[in-house]
């Protein structure tokens, strides 16, 4: 660095060395909280060493005596430097009258609380941005390399920053900004044109077709987090559900789960606020991290895997008739049969436009859901669009003749079911007086707009948390599990 900066004035400290030729000024100190004189530390062999100690304020104010520090490097060998209290507004550096332009910070893996305080202070003060984070090979240490960019008040403090602001206001600065904006606009428009052309072409080839899922040849999709260890489940020994009062010893706090989950999810989905395609494409690879939040990870989700796909469910904690409704049932009914073995009073409803009978369901209809009672054209993807089948439909409002659906499974075979209008607050289900506790939903990659219209309100309402995002190989189908954490009956039956 001395070669790049001809007028570099460097200062350094180390608790383990008396001199260092690369620094103009070098001190054999460990940085401490107070001027205690000595500080107990350990060397590389684990031996206790008593080292000379100097407080942070004394070091910067009485030894370095610099009001501006262009580059501050903080390593874990620096001592007991409480860095989190120095970089915030009205922090220690501001009180000492010291401005730090950029800094590199190295923290230990078990230093999470202190690092969290630092990040909170910086986000609140909006004075630094964080770049170039990396992890050292030693898993016991986490190295964060953070650079500070220029602050607004710098122009009033130093000539070098006044010079920077004069450059910002120059014609070259604005020309550069204009060129960047033009470049981004051209690329954005060309992308939109290609997308529209592609959509128009697909629509022209297959008008009014709703593509059903392919039942054969699918590989089991990846899962993001394993299911918690199962405990023996004996439905017959559970007490009857009493919805008039909360459980005296609830297993889970639904409100705390929702607050924790959406604190995670809202930050992730913020980047897709105006990008439905981006949200759906990235869904399995981003939102899964919220499954691993402390309270969410404790929800006893059970996987019902039929070899082609996975359905997820939380089993009841009390006895009450459970209703399973499948829109677009498949011939593979292993998941349904496994649930029946656990829940003796399970009531099942199913639809499928391509098959007239399914023994796994107590009530079954060969129909597709639509907004009216007319026929719609659906194509089984196994036929490669060769045969178009006009199938009978049923009005989706008239189909749901129940007051509570415990488990709702939705697949592309459901038909033209507008789920985005049903599941939100003040939606069709609420108008019909139907409450839904759990949902397994499977959508195609072409459903980005519908998915966007569903998820954004759910984040605001905090009624359903969405877990276990998955994608089939190639990303043709995306699956997600939703759990109602707001309805009192659903919470009482499944979380308390």
TrEMBL record:
InterPro entries in the cross-refs: FkbM_mtfrase
Keyword Transmembrane listed: yes
The entry's keywords: Membrane, Transmembrane, Transmembrane helix
Domain of life: Eukaryota
Entries under PANTHER family matching the protein: DUF3485 DOMAIN-CONTAINING PROTEIN (PTHR22989:SF8), UNCHARACTERIZED DUF13 C.ELEGANS (PTHR22989)
Domain Methyltransferase FkbM: 36-120
Record-given protein name: Protein CBG09619
Organism: Caenorhabditis briggsae
Record-annotated membrane-spanning stretches: 171-191
């Amino acid at each position: 660095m001395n070669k790049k900066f001809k007028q570099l004035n460097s200062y350094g400290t180390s608790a383990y060395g008396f001199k260092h030729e690369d620094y103009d000024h070098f001190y054999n100190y460990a940085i401490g909280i107070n001027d205690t004189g000595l500080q107990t530390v350990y060397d590389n062999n684990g031996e206790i060493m008593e080292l000379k100690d100097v407080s942070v304020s004394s070091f910067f104010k009485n030894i370095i005596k610099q009001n501006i520090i262009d580059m501050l490097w903080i390593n874990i060998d620096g001592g007991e430097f409480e860095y989190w209290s120095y970089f915030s507004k009205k922090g220690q550096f501001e009180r000492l009258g010291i401005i730090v332009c950029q800094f590199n910070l190295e923290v230990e893996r078990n230093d999470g609380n202190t690092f969290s305080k630092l990040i909170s202070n910086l986000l609140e003060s909006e004075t630094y941005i964080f770049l170039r984070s990396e992890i050292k090979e030693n898993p016991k240490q986490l190295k964060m390399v953070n650079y500070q960019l220029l602050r607004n008040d710098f122009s009033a403090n130093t000539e070098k920053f006044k010079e920077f602001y004069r450059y910002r206001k120059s014609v070259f600065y604005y020309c550069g900004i204009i060129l960047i904006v033009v470049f981004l606009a051209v690329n954005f428009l060309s992308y939109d044109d290609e997308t529209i052309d592609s959509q128009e072409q697909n629509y022209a080839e297959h008008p009014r077709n709703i593509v059903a899922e392919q039942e054969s040849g699918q590989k089991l999709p990846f899962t993001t987090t394993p299911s918690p260890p199962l405990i023996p489940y004996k439905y017959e020994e559970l007490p009857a559900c009493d919805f008039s009062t909360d459980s005296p010893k609830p297993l889970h706090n639904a409100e705390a789960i929702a607050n924790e989950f959406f604190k995670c999810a809202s930050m992730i989905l913020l980047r897709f606020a105006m990008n439905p395609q981006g949200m759906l494409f990235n869904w399995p690879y981003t939102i899964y991290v919220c499954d691993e939040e402390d309270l969410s990870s404790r929800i006893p989700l059970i996987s019902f895997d039929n070899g082609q796909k996975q359905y997820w469910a939380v089993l009841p904690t009390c006895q009450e008739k459970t209703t399973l409704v499948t829109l677009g049932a498949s011939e593979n009914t292993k998941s349904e049969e496994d649930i029946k073995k656990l829940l003796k009073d399970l009531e099942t409803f199913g639809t499928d436009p391509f098959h007239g009978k399914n023994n796994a369901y107590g009530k079954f209809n060969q129909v597709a859901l639509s907004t009216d009672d007319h026929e719609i054209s659906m194509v089984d993807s196994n036929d490669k669009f060769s045969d178009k089948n006009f199938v009978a439909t049923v009005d989706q409002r008239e189909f749901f003749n129940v007051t509570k659906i415990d488990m709702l499974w939705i697949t592309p075979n459901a038909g033209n079911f507008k789920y985005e209008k049903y599941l939100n607050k003040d939606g069709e289900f609420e108008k019909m007086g139907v409450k839904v506790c759990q949902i397994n939903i499977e959508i195609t990659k072409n459903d980005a707009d519908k998915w966007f219209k569903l998820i954004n309100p759910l984040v605001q309402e905090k009624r359903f948390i969405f877990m276990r995002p998955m994608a089939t190989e190639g990303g043709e189908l995306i699956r997600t599990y939703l759990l109602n954490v707001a309805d009192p009956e659903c919470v009482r039956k499944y979380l308390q």
